[in-house]
Design goal:
Elements lengths: L1 H7 L3 H12 L5 H13 L1 H20 L6 H16 L1
Helix pairs in contact: 2-3, 2-4, 3-4
The protein binds zinc ion.
Length: about 80
C-alpha cells in the first residue's frame, strides 16, 4: 500500500500543472487520480484548487472572447500604416 502511495505521489508544482490540465479537460485518468490523492493530503493545493475552480467559473460567466484573426490583421495593418506616416 505504501509503495502504491509513493508511486502515485506528486509534488505541489506537478499538482498545480495537473489542476490546470483538469480545468481544460486535458488530464489523463492517472493524472486525475494523482491530483485527487494529493489534494486530499495537501491543504495548500486544496486551497489553490478551490481558487482555480472559482477563476474558471468566473471566466466562463464573463463569456470572454478574443478578437478574430481578420480583425487583428486589419488593426495591425492600420497601426503599421500610422507608424510609417
Ligand atoms: Zn500540494
Amino acid at each position: 500500500m505504501i509503495q502504491l502511495l509513493k508511486k502515485y505521489s506528486i509534488d505541489c508544482d506537478t499538482n498545480a500543472h495537473f489542476c490546470d490540465k483538469i480545468q481544460y479537460n486535458e488530464a489523463t485518468p492517472k493524472e486525475i487520480a494523482q491530483y485527487k490523492m494529493h489534494v486530499f493530503i495537501c491543504k495548500l493545493c486544496k486551497t489553490h484548487s478551490a481558487l482555480n475552480t472559482e477563476l474558471s467559473k468566473a471566466c466562463s460567466r464573463a463569456r470572454l472572447t478574443t478578437m478574430p484573426k481578420t480583425a487583428k490583421d486589419d488593426l495591425k495593418a492600420k497601426l503599421e500604416k500610422e507608424m510609417n506616416n
